[in-house]
Amino acid sequence: MVAHLAAAATIQAPYPFNQKYFVTPNRDTILYLTAYLLDIKPTPIPQLRALDFTLAFNLAAPVLCVNPEVRKTIEYTQFLFGNDSEAVAAVGQPGKTVEECARILYDLPRQFEGDRTVIITCGHEDTLVVSHNSAKYFPVIAISKEEIAGATGAGDAFGKLH
Length: 162
Known about the structure:
Elements (H helix, E strand, L loop, with lengths): L29 E5 H6 L4 H4 L5 E5 L9 H7 L4 E5 H8 L6 H10 L9 E6 L2 E7 L2 E5 L15 H8 L1
Parallel strand pairs: 1-2, 2-3, 3-4
Antiparallel strand pairs: 4-5, 5-6
Helix pairs in contact: 4-5
C-alpha cells in the first residue's frame, strides 16, 4: 500500500459520492473513510445516512482525533478502526487504558440502529476488538523490524483486509 497523505485536499465536492468515482450507496455498501478527509472538508455523513450504507471509519492519526468532525462521524460509524494512540486521543482522557478508551468509543451515541465494532491495533501487541459490549483480544503475527518498510497506511490496510 502506498499512501499520499495530502490526497484528501484534492477531493472535489460532492464527495464521497461523486458519480465519477462511486456508485450510489445502498445497504450492501460499506463506505470506508479516514479522518484525513475530515481534516480538509466537513463530513456529509449526517445528510447521507438516509442512503442506508455501512460506515467504516479510520481515526488515521492522533492529531486528527481532536477535530470535532471526528466525534460527529463516529456517531454514524458501525466499524471504527484505530491504533492505541489514536484511541486515547479520540477519547481525550490521557491515563485511560486502551481497553477503557475502546469501550468509551464503543459507547458513544449512535445515529444508526445496531451494534458498533471498535478495532484497536496496538503495534506488536494483541489487537483489541470491542463489539456486542464485550472486549476480545486477538494475537498479531510477529514480523522482524527488517521486514517493516514503514507504518504509514498500516491501519488503512488492516481495515480493508479484515
